[in-house]
Amino acid sequence: MRKKKSKLQRRETIAAWLFLLPSLLGISIFILLPFLDAVRRSFYQAMGKAFVGLENYSTVLHNEAFLLAAKNTGRFILTCIPLLLIISLLLSVMVVGQKRWGDFFKVSFLIPMAIPVASVALLWQILFQNKGLLNHLIIKLGGQPVDWMNSNYAFAILVISYLWKNIGYDCVLWLSGLSSIPSSLYEAAAIDGAGGIAKFRFITLPALIPTLFITAVLSLVNSFKVFREAYLIAGSYPHSSIYMLQHLFNNWFISLDVQKMCAAAVMLAATFVVFVLMIYRMGKSGVEE
Amino acid sequence: MKGRKLFSFVLLSLMVIIIWLPIWMMITGSFMGLTELTERVGAVLGYGEGYASWSLLPDYPTLKPYVELLLDSPGFFPMFWNSCFQVIPGVLGQLLIALPAAWSFARFRFRGKHALFLLYIVLMIMPFQVTMVSSYLVLDRLRLMNSHFALILPMIFSTFPVFIMEKSFQGIPLALIEAAKIDGAGELKIFLNIGIPMGTAGIISASVLGFLEGWNAVEQPITFLRDKALWPLSLYLPSIAIEKLGVAMVASVITMMPALLFFLFGQRYIEDGIVASGIKE
């Protein structure tokens, strides 16, 4: 009997690996092995085969463009993600209250996700360019025109277009979190005389903590895609306030700075893993409380 | 209570208007004649005086820009087909590879499964820039740089669809599989006859999300395609604006349409997909 079971189990294990094989093979060839190669290269000299230790890393870390890009990317993430999380949560709570129109609002918020950046790039120019619509409006209201894309405002424009694109995505995540809160909790609280704000503070927020961390991770992932807007509107060398790591990688790629790219990619990957692990850890301890 | 509901309705409606406005402007703009468009926004592109202006509806609506794009813009169609050649095989390939992998993760228990799944999640959340140089190294070695395959192959092995479909496979009741096994069905048969039909929702949501991702791709084509003749719409579009304003507007709308249609068709499934990507292990 026991032998038979283990035979069955072995057959299942073989089947499992066979199903997984094509994917695993492809990932190894196209992602894992090349990445290991990149890690190896990050310790070697460009042409020669000489081992240089951490020299490439130190070159990258002393590179002015890298420091600027890393600073901008960090600033962007730290501005955008809290803003996005708060705005989308507030909107989601409001959407839940709208029974008849709730779905319409949700779908509307989600639509920008489907709109190709290239399609709106032209419109963003019409809006924000020096002689664009926004400046026209400002002049009509008696203000001074601003060169939006070539000043520190470029950063704000990028934040807004990130929010425009990602609010729906986060709303869907929040709404699924909200819908999993049992309504009996609210009813019990109402009997105890809790008001709307108290309910939100003591029932909704604590129940949403797991959703918060996941939404934060996915928003972080999506925040890297804001390069599309920045690149299609402002090109390879935008205003220095929105020169991001993504621009830098792109420019290093054009000049085929493989060594720098390898070292920077390893650092970026490590930062990402640490960041995400930290968020997950925080999420876990938040749930246990 | 009533007042608060009204307040949030007004606020939400305002947000919806802000979100819809750019899309509305694109669509109405595409029906403006070249004269009207130049008059309104020429200043932005460096010809004409003063500032740009806009109106809610075109003053002289016309289909001429569409006709011009269809009949006399030889540059547009190759780019449109490039986009199709890069995205459609990519999505189909994704399904071919990711479906069995997702089935394996959802259906079987084997040693190393959790570590592997964690690896798939990590790969899913890495930004493109992390794997950019390594993808280049391998594509260059395989002499695939500067070809449609340079976009298709890395897309096929994305781990995102594995993740989404694994979630939908997990919803299949075990009893159903046990019953099939008692009837003597092999693993492949169970996968084809039970897994795929029951996992349709996940399959649709992964394909729609994959399509949107591919159709909107910017990072991959600028990195892996040197030759402008291979560029997809998403990259080519911004470069025509200055030469041909009217056509650029229409081309933008036409580029937007497949994505928008797919979105509306798969909207339920997209939501499921997003929620699935949020469920923690």
Structure explained in plain terms:
The complex is a heterodimer of chains A (289) and B (281). With 289 residues, chain A is an all-alpha fold. Chain A has one domain: Orthogonal Bundle (MetI-like fold), CATH 1.10.3720.10. With 281 residues, chain B is mostly helical. Chain B folds into 2 domains: 61 residues, no CATH class; 203 residues, MetI-like (MetI-like fold), CATH 1.10.3720.10. Helices cover 74% and strands 0% of the residues of chain B. Chain B has 15 helices and no strands. Chain B is globular, with a radius of gyration of 23 Å. At the A-B interface, helix 1, helix 3, helix 4, helix 5 and helix 6 of A face helix 1, helix 4, helix 5, helix 6 and helix 7 of B.
Explain the layout of strands and helices.
The complex is a heterodimer of chains A (289) and B (281).
Chain A: H1 2-41, H2 55-61, H3 64-97, H4 102-110, H5 117-128, H6 133-140, H7 153-179, H8 183-191, H9 196-207, H10 209-223, H11 227-234, H12 245-254, H13 258-288
Helix pairs in contact in A: 2-13, 3-4, 3-7, 3-10, 3-12, 4-7, 5-11, 7-10, 10-13
Chain B: H1 2-29, H2 34-41, H3 64-72, H4 76-107, H5 113-125, H6 128-141, H7 149-156, H8 160-170, H9 174-182, H10 187-198, H11 200-215, H12 219-224, H13 233-240, H14 245-265, H15 267-278
Helix pairs in contact in B: 3-14, 4-7, 4-8, 4-11, 8-11, 8-15, 11-15, 13-14
Keywords:
heterodimer; A: 289 residues; mainly alpha; MetI-like fold; 77% helix; globular; B: 281 residues; 2 domains
The biggest beta sheet of chain B reads: none
Total strand segments of chain A: 0
State the domain count of chain A: 1
Main β-sheet of chain A: number of strands, strand sense, barrel status? Answer: none
Model regions low in confidence, pLDDT < 50 over at least 5 residues of chain B = none
Short summary:
The complex is a heterodimer of chains A (289) and B (281). By secondary structure, chain A is an all-alpha fold.
